[in-house]
Amino acid sequence: MKYGELIIEKKEFELLRQIISMSQNYRDKSYRISIEKLLTEMARAKVVSNAKMPNDVVRLNSVVAFSLPGNLQRNYRLVTPEMSNLKENRISILAPMGLALFGYAKGDEVEWQFPGGTNKIKIMDVIQHPQTIKKSAS
């Protein structure tokens, strides 16, 4: 792990806690496992202001290029559940893949439980949406 711990911007941390609290009724086992793992990681995460957030960390609205076993490569923009649209390469923060990527940085390898089993993801690049990286006095 590039920074030694998950790094989350404080407003996104609160938003994610709200989203997760509203999603506790998911019956899908992989979603429940992913949410439980993210909650565990969030408890240990470093929460920082927007001004101190590294630009290479995956956050809401980030476009993430990553590779999967079998030399598969994908690019997704991480969004809130209501904005998710796989045809437009926008993946929900609550999807197992979104949960697996959130808070990690370019170069990190993440092992995560997916519906088809455990997989390892390598984050190749992180591009911040201009709205995301707007630095404020938070």
UniProtKB/TrEMBL annotation:
Keyword Glycosyltransferase tagged: no
UniProt signal peptide: none
Pfam families, sorted: GreA_GreB
Molecular function GO labels: translation elongation factor activity
Protein name: Transcription elongation factor GreAB
Domain Transcription elongation factor GreA/GreB C-terminal: 54-126
Keyword ATP-binding: no
Species assigned in the record: Salinimicrobium oceani
Gene3D superfamilies attached to this UniProt entry: Transcription elongation factor, GreA/GreB, C-terminal domain
Source superkingdom: Bacteria
Keywords: Elongation factor, Protein biosynthesis
